[in-house]
């Protein structure tokens, strides 16, 4: 295992616990996402795992060895664990390229040049390579921070909301690159995000955090199709909730049929409006009880009066 997180708890002040009894493991090459609402303690959890702040109780083991307590370290943190968050320290007066090359002392001169070129290309920073890092935008600094963290070739990479400033194209390119590097180098990655849809694309496993506790551990497919609750399921995309025989039934907007089929339940619906989403239309309907549901189709379902789920 790269990481074994055993029953860890943390609070900034004695009066308020931030998280309690958190346990999970991270394998070499694995990408885990931690998803949850704002303020639930995800960023704090990453800082604890990186050894930057002092745990209240529990242990974090890196390759079987306990990470030294932050309070006993002159410089807190672990050499092999890189954390990229809003506070990532770039060197303001060095250029973009120098910031990356400063992380590459473990490589030969030739390998350094190749790796710098690759990182500048992947993170689309080539044209800024000679610009001082203080003179680039917030989003560009975020990309540079990720490039610097990858340049270090850590065994464990912790990313706090890495895709916030990225457009769809960069999101895909960087997400794929990080996944590829994780598998290639056996690097473990933990990604914190409030956007569950990103987590579905890039993770091997997804952990849901709520009120300072890990409430669920899912595969991406389970998180999408078999969420334990409406609350958790909605992180991963639109989700319908209806009651059939007083039992709650959750279903995704494509899990329905327009024709009768054995064992399915008929719902009478009234079309309200449709939103064009590019590859599909999201059709919003009202049920007899006034509740709204959404159904995806490759057209507007304006004439639809009944569906089967
Ligand atoms: N340095 C600090 N001192 C005291 N409380 C803090 C400190 N940093 C964060 N908190 C509090 O700890 C709680 C968890 O914060 P944290 O940033 O870990 O949550 P989060 O799940 O990452 O939120 P978000 O998704 O909004 O970034 C919040 O209530 C926050 O206000």
Explain what the structure shows.
The chain is of the alpha/beta class. Helices cover 25% and strands 30% of the residues. The structure holds adenosine-5'-triphosphate (ATP). The site of adenosine-5'-triphosphate (ATP) has 11 residues, from helix 1. The site of adenosine-5'-triphosphate has 11 residues, from helix 1.
Write the layout of secondary structure elements.
Layout: E1 3-10, E2 19-26, E3 31-35, H1 42-49, E4 57-62, E5 65-66, E6 81-84, H2 96-101, H3 109-122, H4 138-151, E7 156-160, H5 168-185, E8 188-193, H6 196-202, E9 205-210, E10 213-218, H7 220-225, H8 230-233, E11 240-244, E12 247-251, E13 266-276, E14 281-287, E15 292-297, E16 306-308
Parallel strand pairs: 3-8, 3-9, 6-7, 7-8
Antiparallel strand pairs: 1-2, 1-4, 4-5, 9-10, 11-12, 13-14, 13-16, 14-15
The protein binds adenosine-5'-triphosphate.
Adenosine-5'-triphosphate binds next to α1.
Query: What CATH architecture label of the largest domain applies?
Result: 3-Layer(aba) Sandwich
Oligomer: single chain
Question: What structural class do the secondary elements suggest?
Answer: alpha/beta
Succession of helices and strands: EEEHEEEHHHEHEHEEHHEEEEEE
Count the strands? Answer: 16
Poorly predicted residue ranges: none
The fraction of residues assigned to DSSP E strands is: 25-35%
Give the overall shape: globular
Protein name: ABC transporter ATP-binding protein
Domain ABC transporter: 3-236
Keywords: ATP-binding, Nucleotide-binding, Transport
GO molecular function: ATP binding; ATP hydrolysis activity
């Amino acid at each position: 295992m790269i990481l074994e997180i055993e029953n860890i708890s943390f609070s900034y002040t004695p009066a308020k616990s931030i998280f309690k009894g958190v346990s999970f493991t991270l394998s070499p090459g694995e990408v885990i996402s931690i998803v949850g609402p704002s303020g639930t303690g995800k960023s704090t959890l990453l800082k604890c795992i990186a050894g930057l702040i002092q745990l209240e109780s529990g242990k974090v083991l890196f390759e079987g060895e306990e990470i030294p307590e932050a309070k006993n370290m002159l410089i807190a943190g672990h050499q092999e664990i890189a954390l990229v968050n809003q506070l990532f320290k770039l060197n303001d007066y060095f250029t973009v390229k120098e910031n990356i090359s400063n992380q590459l002392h473990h490589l030969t001169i030739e390998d350094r040049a190749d790796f710098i070129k690759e990182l500048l290309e992947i993170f689309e920073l080539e044209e800024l390579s000679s610009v001082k890092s203080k003179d680039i935008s917030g989003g560009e600094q975020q990309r540079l921070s990720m490039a610097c963290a990858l340049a270090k070739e850590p065994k464990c990479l912790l990313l706090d909301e890495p895709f916030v400033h990225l457009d769809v194209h960069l999101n895909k390119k960087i997400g794929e690159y990080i996944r590829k590097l994780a598998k290639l180098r056996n690097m473990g990655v933990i990604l914190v995000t409030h956007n569950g849809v990103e987590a579905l694309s890039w993770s091997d496993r997804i952990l849901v955090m709520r009120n300072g506790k890990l409430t669920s551990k899912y595969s991406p497919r389970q998180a999408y199709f078999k969420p334990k609750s409406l609350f958790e399921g909605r992180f991963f995309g639109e989700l319908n909730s209806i009651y059939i025989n007083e039992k709650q039934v959750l279903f995704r907007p494509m899990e329905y049929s327009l024709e009768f089929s054995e064992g399915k339940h008929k719902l009478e619906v009234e079309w309200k409006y449709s939103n064009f989403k590019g590859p599909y239309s999201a059709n919003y309907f009202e049920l007899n009880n006034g509740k709204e549901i959404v159904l995806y189709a490759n057209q507007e379902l304006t004439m639809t009066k009944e569906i089967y789920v």
